Amino acid sequence: MENQELLKRWRMILGSTVEDRVAGYGASELSEEELLMDSALSQIYGDSTGESGTKGAGLGKSAPKLTKWLGDLRTLFSQAEVKVIQNDAIERKGLKQLLFEPEMLDGLVPDVSTASLLLTLKDQIPAKAKDNARLYIARIVEDINKRLAEDLKRSVTAALNRREHSPIPSAAAMDYKMTIRRNLKNYQPELHTMIPEKFYFFDRAAKSSSRTVILDIDQSGSMGESAIYSSIMGCILASISALKTYVVAFDTKVNDLTELCSDPVELLYGIQLGGGTDINNSVAYCQDFVTEPEKTTFFLVTDLYEGGNQAQLIRRLTEMKTSGVNVIVLLAISDGGKPCYCADVAKKLAREDIPCFACPPEKLPELLDCALKRRSLSKLAS
Question: Model's pTM, two decimal places?
Answer without folding.
Answer: 0.68
